[in-house]
Amino acid sequence: MAKQLQLRGGTTAEHSTFTGANREVTVDTTTNSLRVHDGATVGGNIVGAITVDSVSDLPTSALDGQVCIVKDLNRGGTFIYDSTEVANDNQGTNFNGWIRQYSGAVNVKWFSSIQDALSIGGVIDGGGEEFPVGNLTVDVNNTVLQNIKLLYSGSTVCLSIIADGCSILNCKVYRSTKSTNPSMVYSSSGISLNGDNCSVINSEVYNINGTGISFDGRYSKILSSTVRDNITGIRGGGAARDTVIDNCVIVDNNVNNSSGADGILLSRSCSFVTVSNCFIDNSGEHGVYGQGQNLKFLGNTISNNYGDGLKFGSYDDQINNYDGRLNIWVPGVAGVPGLDGVDGADGFGLQNIIIDGNTLKNNAGGDGIYFQPSCDNVVISNNLLYGDSIRFVYFDYTGIDVRLELHKDIQILGNRLFGGGITVEAYNDVLISGNSVTEYISTGTKETATEPYGGTATGDRFIIKNNSVTNTSLDGYISINRASGHILDSNIIDNLTVVENCNNVKVINNSINYQSSSIDTARINDFSNNTVTCINDLPFNNSAVAFSFPKRFIGNSIIGNSYTSTYFISASFNANMPNNGRFNNNYIECTSSTRAINLEGQWGTFIGNTILSSASTDIAVDCKCDAFNVTGNTIRYGSINLRNDTAGLGSLVVGNKVNSVSGNVVNNIIANNG
Predict the structure, then answer these.
(1) Residue 625 located in a structural domain
(2) Residues in the chain with pLDDT < 50?
(3) Are residues 428 and 548 in the same domain?
(4) How far apart are CA 408 and CA 396, in angstroms?
(5) In the 8-state DSSP scheme, what is residue 421?
(6) First vs last Cα of the chain: how many Å apart?
């Protein structure tokens, strides 16, 4: 039988006070390890790796380099002792100097809590498992939290990131059930990005009793993530700058319909934000509410929201002059006490907004894109709108400075609207071009003043060009109201409506195909090279206003064969103003009208027109004017009548193809007609 060797031994605790003889070997009965003694070192020297059941069993002291294997499935692993690291204990990768051996990400299971794991920074991995949590804070720069599910039970912020350069990857943050709170809770968020250069990528946040993801730092990124079933989806704070929100699904954030319950809320002074390629649907208030500056919205689909698709407004903590009466910002005015703000005369609440290539549809508020005062430098281009409109509005407060109503430098280009229209209530610097609209384009102001602030009613303040405004009901229209300096050029429309108080308006090169009402031409200065087809038994223009005809009425084709009464066109030019009226080279067809043209005024011309009225008419052109040049016209039926009862004097009526010239032929020059 083999001989048995039995050594002296004792527990780890007993070894801590034992000094063995030189070259003596003892057994640590706690760790089943051997200790070789030198006659001087207390506890001796452990030989080889030791094994324990849990991290709580790690020896309280050891020689540097000693290896220990912990068998616990969650917190276990291989550890090497380093006495210089004792003070850096974190109860996850360092247990009183026992240093965990690993490569790659830190596993949150190694720690007694997720907050302990976050305190060391680096890449922290949750292994795709769910962890019930309260409020967590990331305060170590460049921390990455990935592959974790956080079931939140707190009342403020689940994951607050206050460090820089941090990322949330492939994570879920959520409560167990959707909130039923009747109002917005601004203090609550699933994830809050308050540091700079932080990101949320390929993650999901839902059922938060407040905001899904909030950001208030610089250079934040929210990418390829889903934010759903919160009160507000994503919210940017006033200090946020240079943020990108891209390729996200932001849906069903509709716990209530209170203020702030938006898909994306970009709070007051939030700046340099780009929202691109996102799907934003079924929000409790607006799809997006933007209150800041330098904002871009590119290639998004925004639909089925309770309010508007994209809404913009300026408020009291933005950088310019706040008017507390209306809770909006007004442009500053240098040198004017109370209005000489930070940006002087160039200050606006909303500046530099680009909205391009988006699809907006079925937003219950009725507007796909909505702006309230004040804004400067807005470009809306290449968007598709279904059942939604584009609208810039005034508040129209009587007696308030018109600067409160200012929109400036607006471009609306190449959009297609199906079932909606475009309304721009602004004073100047507006271009509406290349749009296809089924309902209307309407411009002007609700203020009683017709002049722009700080300017005069001169110049090209509105250009409406190359648009199509038509539909199968034949009632698409362009409407101008209190317009100053408008140009309507090369549009294809069903109807034109000129409401009131217009100045310096040019209507040129347009096709107006189904004009169903008389045009109030009182404030149109130039109506030239247009094609107009009138479809009802109404005159072409409203003759109720004296001197109500454009100064230039040249090269038009006007057809109104449904009109059965007298004076299809009443051309009443302003008296006592030389060279004021030009009615030249037009084709006028009104085959059911007994008298086609009523011509009044002084010092005008009626040259080169072709008039086709009823074959039974006796008078085609009724002249009640002095010193007119009536030459080179072709009048198929009826006469040119120089009215005796209006003292018509000094007109030249020469070279017209007309049946006859009648009336006051003595006091005018009549020659070569017939």
Answers:
(1) yes
(2) 316-347, 399-400, 447-459
(3) no
(4) 17
(5) -
(6) 151
